Amino acid sequence: MPRKSPRSRRKPGTPSRLPAANRPRATPGKRAARSERARRAAGAARPAHAPKGARGVARPARKARPPARGRRVAPPDPVRVAAMLHMLEDLYPDATTALHHANPLQLLIATILSAQCTDERVNQVTPALFGRFPDAAEFAAAPPSEIEALIRSTGFFRSKARAIKECCADIAARHGGAVPRTMEELTALRGVGRKTANVVLANAFGIPGVVVDTHVLRLALRLGLTRETDPVKVEFALMPLVPRDRWAAFSHWLILHGRRVCVARKPRCSICPLAPHCPRVGVTASN
Ligand code: SF4
Predict the structure, then answer these.
(1) Position in ligand 1 atom list of the atom nearest CA 261
(2) Which residue's alpha carbon is nearest to atom 2 within ligand 1?
(3) Which of 140, 167, 188, 248 has a CA-to-CA distance to 278 between 20 and 30 Å?
(4) How remote is the CA of residue 71 from the centroid of ligand 1, in Å?
(5) Is 63 annotated as catalytic?
(6) Contact between residue 123 and residue 102 where contact means Cβ atoms under 8 Å apart
(7) Alpha-carbon torsion (143, 172, 166, 117), positive or negative
(8) Measuring from atom 3 of ligand 1, which residue has the nearest CA?
C-alpha cells in the first residue's frame, strides 16, 4: 500500500503547522482593522472614484537608507589628499616607469608584456626582442611562434604575442609605423586598453594621464580616495583629486608605495608614513 504524504494524513480541521507569526491571514486581524479605522478617521479614506490602492493623502517621504556597514570611508577631503600627495612626493621623488625603452613603440610593447608580470622580468626579455624586431612593420610580419619564443618567460605569452602583432599591424597600416599620441587612437589599436594607453601617453609623450594598475586600484580604495572598483571609474574618480600635472607622478607614487609598503596581502601599516591620513579601507591584516 502506497505511503501517504504528511499533508494528506493530516486530519481535517487540524491547524496549520506554520508558526502563528508567519501564518497568512484570510481576514485582516484586529491590529490591521484598528489601523485601518485610524487611517479613515484621519481623513485618508480612498475617494470613491480613485483607483484601487490610491490614497487620500500623500505618503510621507521614505527615510534615506543608511550607508552599508563596513564600507564607511572618510570622503576624500582635499586637505587630507594634499597631505598624502606631499608625503608621497617626498617618499618617491624620482618615481618613473621601471620599463626599459628607447622609443614609444618599445614602451607600448613593454607595457603589454608587463601584464601579470614583474617589470624586472620584462626588462630581461625586451633587449633580445627589440633587437630582433626594430619597428612595428617587423613585428607585424613576424611569425607568432618567433615572438612567443622570445617572451615566453613573461607568462601568457601566446595572447601577449598576438596583442603585440595585432597592435603593430594597426600602427604600421594606419599610422605609418608611428605610435599615435591620443587616447582615442591608442585605444583603437587591437590589444591596447586605457591603462596601456595612459602609460604611453604619460611616459613617452608627456601627456598627463592616471595609470590604474592593480597597485593603484588597491591603494585608491585603502586610502579612501574612491569606492569604485572598476579601473576606468577609478581613473576618472582620481583625476579631480590630483593636479593634472601630477597625474603621471601620482600613479608612479602609488605603484611604488603598493610594492614597497602597502603590499596586497599584509600591508605594513606600522611603518607607513601615510597611516595618519589612511582610513585603511578593506585592510584586515597588517604588520
Ligand atoms: S596605512 Fe596601511 S593601508 Fe594605509 S596606505 Fe599605509 S600600508 Fe596601506
Answers:
(1) 7
(2) 269
(3) 248
(4) 16
(5) no
(6) no
(7) positive
(8) 280
Which tens digits make up the pLDDT trace of 215-233? Answer: 999 999 999 999 999 999 9
Report the CATH number that the domain containing residue 186 is assigned in CATH: 1.10.340.30
The answer to whether residue 175 is domain-embedded is yes
Only one residue has cell 571609474, namely: 233
Ligand 1 touching residue 269 (CB < 6 A): yes
Residue 195 near residue 167, CB atoms below 8 Å: no
Residue from 178, 217, 193 nearest 115 by CA: 193
User: What residue numbers bound the domain in which 270 lies?
Assistant: 104-277
At 284 the pLDDT is 83
pLDDT tens per residue across span 18-71: 445 555 555 555 665 566 566 565 554 444 444 444 444 445 545 545 445 445
Ligand 1 centroid to Cα of residue 273, in Å, is 8
Is 222 close to ligand 1, i.e. is its CB under 6 Å away? yes
Residue linked to cell 617618499: 91
Q: Which of 85, 87, 105, 107 is nearest to 96 (CA)?
A: 107
pLDDT in tens, 130-160: 999 999 999 999 999 999 999 999 999 999 9
pLDDT at 213 over 60: yes
Q: Is the C-beta atom of 225 inside 6 A of ligand 1?
A: no
Domain count within the chain:
1
Q: How far, in Å, is the centroid of ligand 1 from the Cα of 272?
A: 6
Q: Do the domain assignments include residue 151?
A: yes
Q: Is residue 270 part of a domain?
A: yes
CA separation for the pair 155, 165 (Å, rounded): 16
Give the ligand 1 atom nearest the CA of 280. 3
